[in-house]
Amino acid sequence: MKFPSVTVTGLITAPCEELFAIVSDPTRHPELAGSGEVMDVKWITPPPVRVGSAFQSRQCIGWYQYPTRSYIQVYNPPYQFIWLSGPGFKKPPFGQLWGFDLEPLDARTTLVSNLMRWPLFPVPDIPPFSWLKKRGLDHEVKNMKPTLYKLAKLANAVVIGELQVIYDWCEQTSPCAERRRLMVSV
Q: pLDDT grade, residue 37 (50/70/90)?
C-alpha cells in the first residue's frame, strides 16, 4: 500500500530566495501552474503567511470550473512551501498535498522539487490499482514539468539539464536524498 505521489525535480539558475518568493505567493499560481487549471487565487487569511494560512482558488478543467480551498501545511522560508488543496479540510486525509522543496546549491543555482500527493488513502500496489495510480500520476507529471519551466521563466532563469521524476513524495525518509546527490554530481 502506498500513497499515490510524485516528485518532479530540476536545477534552476536562480537564487533560492527568489524562487521561494514566487512559489510561496499563491496569487502567482495562475501564471505558474503548468496545468493551466488555476484561474485565480485570493488569500482568505490576512498576512503574515504561516502554517494554517488559507487561500482560495478557482480552477477550470475543460469547461468545468470549481473552487478549492487550500491550507498551508509547511512554511519554511526559503526552502519549503506545502499546502493541502481540496474541498476545505484543513488537514489530510482529504484533498491533495502540493508543494515545493528548494535546496540552494550556490548563490545562483537551486534544486527545485515540485511535489504532489493524494493523501485520501493508500492504494494497493497491485493491478488494477497500480495501473490506475500510475495513469493518474503520469497525468500530474505532464502538468508538473511545465510548472518548473514556468518557474524558471518567471525568475528570468533556465532549467539546467533534464527534469527528474520519482513516483514518491520527496521527504527525508524517501530515496530523494540519493537522487538529489546524483543530480548535483552530474
A: confident
Question: Is CATH 3.30.530.20 the classification given to domain 5-185?
Answer: yes
Query: pTM score, two decimals?
Result: 0.84
Domain assignments of the chain as residue spans, ordered by start: 5-185
Amino acid letter for position 169: W
| Grid cell of 98 as nine digits | 502540493
Average confidence (pLDDT) over 142-150: 94
Q: Cα separation of 108 and 17, whole Å?
A: 10
